Amino acid sequence: PVRRREVVHLMNKHLSRRVVDILRDLGRVGDELELPVYAIGGFARDLLLGGKNDDIDISVEGDGILFAETFANRHGCRIKSHAKFGTAVIVFPDKAKIDVASTRLEYYETPGALPTVERSSLKMDLYRRDFTVNTLAVRLNPQNFGLLIDYFGACRDLKDKTIRVLHNLSFVEDPTRVFRAVRFEQRLNFQIARHTENLIRNAVKMGFLDKLGGRRLLNELIIILREREPVRAILRMESLGLLRFIHPDLVLDSENIRILDEVKKVVTWFELLYQQDNVETWVVYFLALTSLVSDDSFWETCTRLSVSEHYRERLIDMRVHGEQVLKVMEQKAARENTVRRSDIFFWLRSLSLEVLLYIMAKTRREDVRKFISLYVTQLRGVSCSVTGDDLKSMGLPPGPRYREVLDVVLKARLNGEVSTHADELLLARQELARK
Ligand code: ATP
């Protein structure tokens, strides 16, 4: 068993000073209210694995909302509470959040009625969790600060790198856990236990996953596709027969796997270069995963996943538009020896970064990949210094000519035919005089 002192040592080693202070304060407030307080779930799991997890989940044996209110008053935080569930979120001034849950609920069904008390111990509460590795609790009250509570063999499974459910009906109770199992297995580099894997295969065979709501399925899929190694998780889902619950046509072949592997390379390349740029990597992986299915199947996939109508339109547009541009580029590259920088720019300028990365992964042509990379690293930042105001002062009446003239100047700039502001102005004047 892991000793209290070791847990405190791990906290000091892996958590910031601020977080450790907050944990101790949480324990003090617990003592004041005479309530046992625990940090539980992913936080405790990652602490023992020596990783960092800033999401603090607190469980209070007693009135968690009163606890959250008391803590929040002390620390100038706001809280959002759900009386019915006995849960609250403590929100710090810098927006950091702590989730608080009560293992024992006490609420009034109607005003004036006797309180309905639902008693449930910490152990019962932890028993409802998905996997043993998520059932650890760390006591925070000062006397026992750092005491590790392990009812279900979590430490053993962490040591053995095993993902294990707590009981045989786990996946029947909640089929999203099938996807969560894959996610934790791949993220932590663990192995789903044999019996647990059999339960998954059984749930697949019995069609329990059909009952899974689209929204929840989409949520799990997005989380998986946002992980560091989505391709491994996708392959694992395929081997467990999970992809067909997203759509029957989602069958991986070697071409599909090649595209997914390329996405990994391209996304890694992009993130190294542009840490500050926001790319929804899950969208890139989603486009790659569904790359080879028909448009109809793509539509059905989005429907199965309850993607909102607005977002579905966007995804379809990304897919169709990306494919069109890729085709044009590939044909042009195959026919001609030189492609101008302005061509690349005008082909690609209406595509989002997600689509750019997707088609960069999809193409088999090295030259086309280079064009896209040139656009992403250099061309997309290019603009001309002549503006609409300049054209206005040249007397150009409002209309589509503005766009045309500015594009002519931009094109010349991209191809290095003009470089100074004066050159650009001259070119704009010539262009205006031409028509
Ligand atoms: P992450 O690092 O991805 O946030 P996490 O372990 O915190 O991982 P969450 O999805 O945030 O995972 O869930 C928080 C906790 O709630 C988990 O540790 C898990 O035990 C529990 N949990 C979440 N979803 C389920 C579920 N479907 N069934 C049972 N327990 C769940």
Write out key terms for the chains shown:
435 residues, alpha+beta, Beta Polymerase, domain 2, Hydrophobic Seed Protein, 4 domains, two-stranded antiparallel sheet, 21 helices, 10% strand, globular, binds adenosine-5'-triphosphate
Task: Outline the structure in words.
With 435 residues, the chain is an alpha+beta fold. It folds into four domains: 156 residues, Beta Polymerase, domain 2 (2-Layer Sandwich); 86 residues, Hydrophobic Seed Protein, CATH 1.10.110.30; 97 residues, no CATH class; 47 residues, no CATH class. Helix content is 55%, strand content 10%. The protein has 21 helices and eleven strands. The chain has a seven-stranded mixed sheet. A two-stranded antiparallel ribbon has the order 6-7. α12 packs antiparallel against α13, α15 packs across α17 and α17 runs antiparallel to α18. It is globular and about 85 Å long. It starts with a helix and ends with a helix. The model has no long low-confidence stretch (mean pLDDT 92). The site of adenosine-5'-triphosphate has 10 residues, from α8. Adenosine-5'-triphosphate (ATP) binds next to α8.
Short description:
With 435 residues, this protein is α+β, with helices and mostly antiparallel strands. The protein is built from 21 helices and eleven strands. It has four domains: 4-159, Beta Polymerase, domain 2, CATH 3.30.460; 161-246, Hydrophobic Seed Protein (Orthogonal Bundle), CATH 1.10.110.30; 251-331 and 352-367, no CATH class; 388-434, no CATH class.
